[in-house]
UniProtKB/TrEMBL annotation:
Name this polypeptide is given: Acyl-CoA dehydrogenase
Cofactor(s) listed: FAD
The organism of origin for this protein: Pseudorhodoferax soli
Domain Acyl-CoA oxidase/dehydrogenase middle: 134-227
Molecular-function GO term, any one: acyl-CoA dehydrogenase activity
């Protein structure tokens, strides 16, 4: 494994650093102070669109653009981890708030037919204004037991009728479409899963409500209901054939998750690094850096973050080599958020009473970091996955 950062990666990181310092952190801070997500027409989003954000990596099959731009391929997983770490250093919430197809994109790319990819992703190739896509798996009854989702899908002629509730879906209230997972029969478990693209304004897609969050306030996490929500069969991702071949949509969802775990680990490390950098500034300003015990603790947190990042990079590198990375991805996801949480808690201690006043960036980072242990499979669930593997049980 090669640990060197290529010139191209270094340039991308540097560009993100500048944008992060000048635009992303101030915007995230503004949303946090307001206690609400930035509205879709906020000038920040237009600005970031002009900087090239908010676009899909999908290109029409066979187009000249696709041949030149390596069609439908994400940046390497290693690059994604490096950029996730740098982006979250400046503001993780604002990174998710950015326009674009979001978590729905990998699901459409991995499961969708070429026609569906064209229909749902083409608007994101060069959008005239900021637009969003979203992904909804989690339900009010719980998000960890993904195999047991309760939202029902019933075929009715040329349509499907969806009934159920979804929660904590990022950006879904402002999205053009939401990739919604439902089951045709709960008794079938994973084999019963189907993924639908539910378009904005579809009758029965109702009651959007922005959830309250302790951190990451810059983007909306939204709950909504599907009540007799009629979706054309053409919006069943992959068509029926996809599910006959692959035991339901569950694998599609899991692919989406596995691609994201090393990047989530990177984001946690980025938040932890930001907290430690802030802590160093406080230590310098208050003359605390002469305290060997504090320096020792600072170094220990830095070391744990570095170790977690190396593990995330290993998991990403395996993905880039098309080698199984489930264990490494789970280990990185299990390790990085607690390390980052401890780092922000240490920074809060350094800050002392000022932390309680809620006016310092460290306090915001302390609230932001917790979600990283929850999203895309909690720390406990990662440990369940790894421990089952250790004793040879199937996942
Ligand atoms: C900021 C944020 C953004 C999110 N964005 C999205 C999104 O865009 N789309 C989406 O679909 N979802 C999203 N989610 C939901 C997220 O995926 C779920 O919160 C997560 O899967 C956990 O589900 P839960 O919160 O319902 O907890 P539960 O599943 O109810 O679990 C509760 C607790 O029990 C533990 N637990 C559960 N089962 C076990 C077990 N077998 N062994 C040991 N411990 C267990 C869990 O680790 C957790 O600590 C988001 C969540 C947050 C906080």
């Amino acid at each position: 494994m090669d640990f060197s950062i290529t010139a191209d990666q270094a340039a991308q990181i540097e560009r993100l650093r500048v944008l992060g310092r000048e635009h992303m952190r101030p915007a995230g801070w503004r949303a946090d102070r307001a206690g609400a997500p930035l509205p879709p027409d906020d000038a920040f989003f237009t600005r970031m669109l002009a900087e090239g954000f908010g676009r899909t990596r999908w290109r029409p099959h066979g187009s000249a653009a696709s041949a030149a731009a390596a069609p439908n391929k994400a940046a390497s997983a290693v690059t994604q981890v490096l950029l996730a770490e740098e982006g979250a250093y400046w503001d993780r919430g604002i990174g998710v708030a950015l326009p674009g197809p979001g978590l729905g994109e990998p699901a459409i790319l991995s499961m969708g037919t070429p026609e569906q990819q064209q229909r749902f992703l083409a608007p994101f190739v060069d959008p005239a204004k900021p637009i969003w896509g979203a992904f909804a798996m989690t339900e009010p009854s719980g998000g960890s037991d993904v195999a047991n989702i309760k939202t029902r899908a019933r075929r009715d002629g040329d349509d499907w009728v969806l009934d159920g509730a979804k929660s904590f879906s990022g950006n879904s209230g402002r999205a053009q479409w939401i990739v919604v997972f439902a089951t045709i029969d709960p008794a079938l478990g994973r084999a019963g899963h189907r993924a639908f693209v539910v378009e904005r304004g579809t009758p029965g897609l109702t009651d959007f409500r922005i959830e309250k969050k302790m951190g990451l306030k810059a983007y909306e996490s939204t709950s909504f209901f599907l009540t007799g929500c009629r979706v054309p069969h053409a919006n069943l991702l992959g068509g029926e054939a996809y599910y006959q071949q692959r035991s339901g949509g569950f694998k599609g969802a899991m692919n989406t998750f596995n691609a994201g775990r090393p990047a989530i680990a990177g984001m946690a490390v980025g938040i932890g690094r930001a907290a430690l950098d802030e802590a160093v500034q406080v230590m310098q300003a208050q003359g605390l850096w002469s305290d060997q015990r504090l320096r020792d603790r600072l170094e220990r947190h830095r070391r744990k973050l570095k170790g977690a990042l190396l593990l995330a990079l290993k998991a990403a590198w395996l993905a880039d080599q098309r080698q199984p990375n489930m264990l490494e991805a789970s280990a990185a996801k299990a390790m990085a958020p607690p390390a980052a949480f401890d780092a922000t808690a240490f920074a809060m201690e350094v800050l002392g009473l000022a932390g309680g006043a809620g006016e310092h960036l460290i306090e915001k980072l302390f609230r932001d970091v917790k979600a990283l242990d929850i999203v895309e499979g909690t720390g406990q669930i990662q440990r369940v996955v790894m421990s089952r593997h250790l004793v040879g049980l199937p996942n």
